[in-house]
Amino acid sequence: MSVxxxxxxxxxxxxxxxxxxxxxxxxxxxxxxxxxxxxNLHAAFYLGMHRMMLHLPVDWxxxxxxxxxxxxxxxxxxxALHQARRNIARLKPELTSDQIEAFCERLYRNIGRxxxxxxxxxxxxxxxxxxxxxxxHLKAACAQGPVVLIYLHIGNWEGISPLMQHLGQKFSDIxxxxxxxxxxxxxxxxxxxxxxxxxxxxxxx
Length: 205
What we know:
The chain is mainly alpha-helical and about 200 residues long.
């Protein structure tokens, strides 16, 4: 597992634990009108950006996502950025502070690319953005019975959906719900468009 994978796994675990803690907490903070308006404005902005990105060139979408990903984290997510710095320093103690900062920027730029590239995911294979190596081994394994796929969170890991459709393979995917409803809606609509059977995390999966 690469350092980027470890960081992503750590972030996913913290997110899941935080969500579980909120669900199990007997006291819930009341949702104010301001909170509701902020949520609706965020949803409208995110959905509007997604619809606009559907019609833009792939390179533009990816570059814009990288910029927004790093801009939001560096400006408005100090706790997440601090935790990422700490994780990288523990995993790679030989890095300098400047190298750690560059690593953080690379991480969050890539996450931004993945989020925004949902809008152009159907175009990535036709445009030759993915390269497949060893697909015959996967096909042979699937022909013999159920297969468990473990794929790394590097590059655009959402490419697994168009990949499996391209290979003519039906599959189910266990996913971590995003932080907002609009992000969940966009992500799952795109995944289902490739025939993915979505399984939310938990014992039922």
